[in-house]
Write a structure and sequence with these properties.
Elements (H helix, E strand, L loop, with lengths): L1 E5 L2 E6 L2 E4 H4 L15 H10 L6 E2 L5 E2 L8 E5 L3 H6 L9 E4 L5 E2 L5 E2 L5 E2 L2 E7 L15 E8 L2 E2 H4 L7 H4 L6 E8 L11 E6 L2 E7 L7 H9 L9 E3 L20 E7 L3 E8 L5
Parallel strand pairs: 6-17, 8-14, 9-19
Antiparallel strand pairs: 1-2, 1-5, 1-14, 2-3, 3-4, 6-7, 10-13, 11-12, 11-17, 12-14, 15-16, 15-18, 18-19
InterPro entries: FAH, Fumarylacetoacetase-like_C, Fumarylacetoacetase_C_sf
GO molecular function, one term: hydrolase activity
Protein name: Fumarylacetoacetate hydrolase family protein
């Protein structure tokens, strides 16, 4: 099943048509795309058994961020061995966790304004929690994941790496620094949710390409490790880490520039197309 935010309203996608959930359910479920996770199991049962076919046509510009107000947004650093190597650090023995503040989230075609000349790209698979998870064993972790989506963990490197202690959460939380979408895909729709190709490019030049099977900590491992420390709540997001190819690790270093478009994808899910603009929006 594909679930989307269509013009600010929760929708189920059927091919190229959108079924408005509040209308189709006669008000049983709200139109707010964030509200559904409070009753995920009831929604899933209805959507799989009673949601009508058909719907209204949609265009790429109709889609907003599939979630905007999660309680918690986790970021995972250095989750691919080759990315750890290009960053000059050892492969982590446990997940390197930071947060992206929810106000950074934006939609799949939204413009991203650059606050500086040192803003980097990081394509990622993003997992959405559907059921509260506390001390969940890895073998049961997928049952707590509602859906997957594509994301960009855009990063202002000067702020992120400013000492004496690095400020990952601040450097990764400027407005627009968390494009996600274009919709959510439930894991059962994917042949192997543990092995998906992902990548990104700028104006057609490929910058990153990898497979999620190469993550050091898989989605189930991350759910298990995080839920061993704190509860994961319905609607929480986990940005699962970026593969090699970031601009900071290149020689010479490369960063995003106004007037370009950052294109990102995850196999079986969809694509993001985010124009990169100057601080004044041009």
């Amino acid at each position: 099943m594909r679930i989307a935010n269509v013009r600010g309203r929760l929708a189920i996608l059927r091919e190229d048509l959108a079924v408005d959930v509040e209308t189709a359910s006669s008000g049983r479920f709200e139109s707010d795309p964030d509200a559904i996770y409070r009753e995920w199991d009831k929604f899933l049962s209805w959507a799989e058994g009673a949601a009508p076919d058909g719907g209204s046509p949609v265009a790429p510009g109709d889609f907003g961020a599939p979630l905007l107000c999660p309680a918690q947004v986790f970021g995972i650093g250095l989750n691919y061995r080759d990315h750890a190597a290009e960053s000059g650090v050892a492969v982590p023995e446990q997940p390197a966790v930071f947060t992206k503040f929810p106000t950074c989230l934006t939609g799949p075609t939204a413009a991203v304004a650059l606050p500086s000349a040192t803003v980097d790209w990081e394509v990622e698979l993003v997992a959405v929690i559907g059921r509260r998870a506390e001390h969940v064993p890895e073998e049961k972790a997928w049952s707590h994941v509602a859906a997957l989506t594509a994301g960009q963990d855009i990063s202002e490197r000067a702020v992120q790496l400013a000492g004496p202690v690095p400020q990952f959460s601040m450097g990764k939380s400027f407005p627009g620094f968390g494009p996600i979408g274009p919709w959510l895909v439930t894991p059962d729709e994917l042949a192997d949710p543990d092995d998906l190709e992902l990548g990104c490019s700028v104006d057609g030049r490929v910058l990153q390409r990898a497979r999620t099977k190469d993550m050091i900590f898989s989605v189930p491992a991350l759910v298990a490790r995080l839920s061993a420390v704190l509860p994961l709540l319905p609607g929480d997001l986990i940005f699962t880490g970026t593969p090699p190819g970031v601009g900071m690790a290149r020689t010479p270093k490369e960063f995003l520039r106004p007037g370009t478009t950052l294109d990102s994808y995850v196999e079986g899910i969809g694509e993001l197309h985010n124009p990169i603009v100057a601080p004044d929006g041009r």
